[in-house]
Each structure stands twice: as C-alpha cells, then as structure tokens.
Write a structure and sequence with these properties.
The complex is a heterodimer. Chain A is α/β, with parallel strands linked by helices. Chain A contains 15 helices and 12 strands. In chain A, the strands form 2 sheets. Chain A has a 6-stranded antiparallel sheet. Chain B is built from 1 helix and no strands. The chains are: A alpha/beta, B mainly alpha. Chains A and B meet through helix 3, helix 4, helix 6 and strand 12 of A and helix 1 of B.
Chain lengths: 482, 31
C-alpha cells in the first residue's frame, strides 16, 4: 500500500536499487491500484467552435465603432484624406483597447488558442495598431494643416496625442528589444502595463477632445467610449480585483525537494475543497507570498498528474534571477496560483495515438505530467521519450521513468541522450536530428511530436521535421518563456 | 505548429478587413 501511495503521489522510487526491482515494485503497485482515474472533460470554451466564434467576432468588434458612427452621423466636413486619418485612429484605438482583453489571461479567451498563441497575436496586432496610429497624424495633417505636426504651441489635446504616440513607440521598442536591452522580465512587465494604461488614458483624452464636437449625442459618445471604458474595467479587474480574489484562496508549500543539482520540485497543496483542475502539460502562474523569494508572478509547467488535483508539483531549474532563489522557499509558505494555461497536452489531440516526446533538460516537466496522467488513466497510447541532457547528473525522474518503461504503464520507450557523457556511458550521445529520430521511432509516419526544449534546439528540430514532411498538425511545441 | 500558421493567415485577414473598413467608411462619407 505504501508503494502504491509513493508512486501515485508522483515521487520517484529511489529506495529500489536495481532496474529489475523497480519493475517488480512498479507492476505490483499498478496491479494493486484500486482506482482508475478518468480523464477530466475539457471546459466548453476550449473547443474549436468557440475559438472560431472568437476569431469571427474580433474583426467585427474592431470595426464596430467606426461603422456605427459613420452610419449614425456621417461627417461631410472632412476631406477624404482627413477622414482616412480619423478612421485609422478610431480603428487603431479600438484595437488598442481590445489588447487589454487579449492579455488579461481570461480563460474563455485563452483556452481555445493557448496563451503563447494569444500573446503572439497580441504582438502582431500591436504592430498593426502602431502603424495605424502613426498614419493618423500624417493623414490628418496632410488634409488639414502640417502645423499640427510641426508647431510647438498647439492645443493641449494635440500634445496628448503626440505623447500617446511617443509612449506607444517606447512600448513597442521595449517589447521588441527587451532581450537586447537586458530588461528583467518582471520590471519590463510592470513598465509595459503602466505605459499601456497611460496610452489608454491619454489616447482617450485626445480622442474625446478632438472628436467631441463630432459626437452629437449620448449614443455616439457611448459607442465611441465603450471599448476604452471596457479596457479600463478589464485592467482594473486584472490588476486589482483578481489578485485580491487569488489571495483569498492561496496554495501552501507542502515540500521542496532537490531533484538534481540546481533543480527543485516544489509541491503546493490546493486550498481545501478547491482542487486545481488542469490538463497534463499545462502551466500556471505562481506568486509566492510572505516568502523569502520576491512576490513576483512567474509561469511554471506542472509536473504532477491531474489525478492528484488536491496538490500540484512544479519542477524548477535555477537558471534566472528568480529561479536562483527557489531553494529559499520553505514548507508552509503561501502562494497564489493562476491557471491553468496552454494547450501543450496530448489531451487536446485524442486522435493522435503514437506520440514522440522530445525533452531538453528541465523541459521534461510537462512530459512527466502527461506520462503520469497516462499511467493513472491506463492510457494505451504509445510514447517514445527522447530526453536530451547535457550531463548524467541533470537527468530528472530517472527511476520513475525506468519504472514506467519496465511495466509499460504507459507504453513508454525512453531514450536518454547526453551531450557531455561520462567516459563509461554507452547510451546515446550528441545532437538530436530528424534522421536519428527516424531510427529511434521506427519511422516518422503517423507519429505526433511534442517538443519542449531550449529555443535553438526547438527551432532546429522543427525545421528538420518539416524537411522530412512531417505535417505541422503533428508538431506541438512548448516554450521555455512566453 | 498548425495554429501558428493559421494565425499568420488570420492576421492577414484581419488587416484586410480593417483596411477595407477604414477606406470604405472614408469613401462612403458624402463630401
């Protein structure tokens, strides 16, 4: 019974010395396992239909104020060029307001696409907004007077518009060049949020003053102001209301375990009566409160199985300003957990039966969650795990993987590839490419590839797989940073 | 990967809709 508990709490079975012993213990544990865990149904808003509806609504919402204002009150005073400039501003500002919704991490917006894709879309739209709002003053000035751009002594609202554009340029530049400028993520995020709010407020003031005389009645004013007010409400929710709600149901650190040099597994207990539901492979944002680590919010993949919804474990490598302090976390510390997020899970692709997991270093974490879930649910899908590590010391969860492979729960074939192997190592070494994947997997046809590895390795593997004509439908990537 | 490819097409689609609306609305205003 204790062995069953050991395995089902997701801990490695370190006490068993030999691989044969592991197999015996693991099989006995599985045989005596009295429960069979069913897969949790996905939320209704995670489906493709809801995603398609959101995609259809987005451009309609973006042009709705423009169309409504033109239908209600076409303004014949403007020249064509000026009107084009005004329209650019109206659409650009509506899109800018909608950016607050996109980045609010609302489950019903994130779930059909995954947070990484939503943020990529947010970046693409930010460039579009920047282009539209830069075109606005040029078009209006060319239709009205170039003094609007060149004169210093102009109306205050013109200056509000100019400062809005400067802030927007700063926002785009810092987002694109964050790594080059070496701005720490948390500082950049705080700055990004503050500048975005300033842009919304200044842009609103500029627009209200500039278009005030054109908005002849309350209906027009309401249409014009609806999206920025909604954006402000979303900002208030995400920065004031939600942190307060999360702090009311904090998780508590159950254990901090050293897995390997500079790698820890932190297990958090969910609040009593509020189990944390997620799909294996997903991640969440964690903020430790009243702890010896900064109260910053960071995304971490979940390593535990969703069948233990009363607790989650996160395996974290010390490789950054924040993660270098992970060993300071103590049992009993409180943390807020927001999530789950992402679509990097075999649960979202139930038609794919033959899976190839490619992990680089600590990238094994989401795969452990998937493998543990498959074990708990007794799934019959075949899995080939290619686990690339620099050194043998860095190989995580080796006993547990060995146990899974030995008892074929799930049907796992694990291959460890070391780039700096010890002299006695007889296993795989060197770089992973599509040719070697072909050998290890027995062909690439009908296989689905899940990649969670450092960026360069990820790019190279995707390129290799695409060259081998693996369909993009069958390549799924998780990323080390958002 | 498939979703990223689709997103590129979708961004292009949104751009066309927006530009169409901007130009169309300016064009249709009686001057």
């Amino acid at each position: 019974v204790s062995k069953v508990k050991v395995i089902h709490r997701g801990n490695s079975i370190d006490s068993v010395a030999s691989p044969g012993g592991i197999a015996v213990v693991a099989r006995r544990a599985m045989d005596h396992c009295s429960f069979y865990v069913k897969r949790q149904p996905l939320p209704w808003f995670a489906g493709a239909g809801w995603g398609a509806l959101l995609c259809a609504v987005y451009p309609l919402l973006a042009v709705a104020p423009l169309v409504a204002l033109h239908v209600l009150d076409p303004d014949p005073d403007h020249t064509l060029v000026t009107q084009l400039g005004v329209n650019c501003a109206l659409v650009g500002f509506t899109l800018l307001s909608m950016q607050f919704l996109l980045t609010a991490r609302l489950p019903w917006i994130e779930a059909p696409f995954g947070l990484y894709l939503v943020l990529r879309f947010h970046r693409a739209m930010a460039l579009m907004i920047f282009a539209l709002l830069c075109a606005h003053p040029v078009l209006v000035a060319s239709g009205e007077s170039w003094h609007l751009l060149t004169r210093f002594h102009v109306h205050l609202y013109i200056w509000a518009g100019r400062i809005t554009l400067l802030f927007l340029a700063a926002l785009v530049a810092t987002a694109l060049l964050r790594n080059v400028m070496r701005i720490p993520y948390e500082r950049w995020r705080r700055m990004h949020n503050a500048i975005a709010l300033a842009i919304l407020a200044l842009g609103f003031a500029h627009g209200l003053a500039a278009a005030g005389h054109d908005l002849n009645n309350d209906t027009e004013l309401t249409i014009w102001a609806a999206t920025p007010i909604l954006a402000f409400a979303v900002w208030l929710y995400t920065h004031a209301v939600r942190p307060h709600l999360l702090a009311r149901r904090t998780f508590r650190v159950q254990s901090v375990k050293l897995e390997a040099p500079r790698v820890w597994t932190v297990t958090l207990d969910a609040p009593i009566g509020r189990p944390f539901r997620f799909s294996p492979g997903q991640f969440q944002f964690v903020r430790f409160l009243d702890s010896k680590v900064p109260a910053e919010e960071h995304p971490f993949s979940i390593a535990s199985s969703p069948s233990q919804a009363e607790s989650i474990s996160l395996t974290i490598k010390a490789c950054g300003d924040f993660t270098n302090l992970i060993d300071r976390i103590q049992v009993g510390d409180c943390a807020t957990v927001q999530g789950p997020f992402g679509r990097f899970s075999h649960d979202f692709h139930s038609d794919q039966r033959d899976l190839v997991f490619i992990a680089g270093g600590v990238g094994i974490t989401p795969f452990m969650s998937m493998l543990r879930a498959m074990r708990d649910r007794r799934e019959t899908r075949r899995v080939t795990l290619i686990y690339a590590c620099r050194e043998l010391d860095g190989v995580l969860f080796a006993p547990e993987l060995l146990a899974m492979e030995s008892c074929q729960l799930p049907a796992l074939k694990a291959i460890v590839v070391l780039s700096q192997p010890p002299a006695w190592w007889t296993g795989e070494t060197g770089r992973i490419d599509a040719k070697r994947l072909d050998e290890w997997c027995g062909g690439l046809e009908d296989k689905s590839f899940y990649l969670c590895c450092p960026p360069q390795m990820n790019i190279q593997l995707v390129r290799d797989l695409r060259r081998r004509r693996v369909s993009p439908r069958r390549i799924h990537c998780d990323y080390f940073s958002l | 990967m498939q979703r990223f490819r689709l997103m590129k097409f979708y961004v292009a689609f949104v751009l066309i809709v927006l530009l169409g609306a901007i130009v169309g609305a300016a064009w249709l205003v009686p001057s």
